[in-house]
Amino acid sequence: xxLISSNIPAHWQWLLWLIGALIGxxxxxxxxxxxxxxxxxxxxxxxxxxxxxxxxxxxxxxxPGLNFHLLGATVLTLMFRPLFALFGLALVLAAITxxxxxxxxxxxxxxxxxxxxxxxxxAIFRFVDRRLPNHLFIYVFxxxxxGAALAIFAVGCVSxxxxxxxxxxxxxxxxxxxxxxxxxxxxxxxxxxGMLVTLMVVYKPxxxxxxxxxxxxxxx
Length: 220
Known about the structure:
Elements: H1 13-30, H2 39-57, E1 60-63, E2 66-68, H3 73-100, H4 106-131, H5 136-166, H6 171-177, H7 181-203, H8 213-216
Antiparallel strand pairs: 1-2
Helix pairs in contact: 1-3, 1-4, 2-3, 3-4, 3-5, 4-5, 5-7
């Protein structure tokens, strides 16, 4: 997580930035920006983005480019759906990038720490929404708890593969000293996400776009 510019092979830069630009264009084209005209929606979005930024600033690491921090991607996905979740994570990463000056690493970091966890979280939500009964416990446990754990572990796997392929660190070192920590990170991410989503669907269900209290609570 949090790759640095020196970790990115020069011949990969154009492809990574092209993919990042295409995803940015998709967000700009498909997102329902009219929702942000509502002051309440805008305040909730900005507040959630700032909380995620604070999570990213609390980090540790073992070597340059091998840092660990909570993501908050699953929370944003459940609250705002994937496009606005990606936009929020892009804002967080832009602030981190400006602070540390690792501009060349923006695109790969966005793909690994933004696209991957949002895609995993959204895929789990869609599967649960279509295949399983509408129940509060199922929503919280599978979408928030399990979804967050799987999302951050997927980030660990992808970042391990990326760094190994780039030749910065050998694969055996990453498998022994880097990837196993994501099992611990998965538990922390799952616990935090599950707790936050539970509180929101109970007290502020209107903040969670993927949750409908009539579907998940009435008659249960």
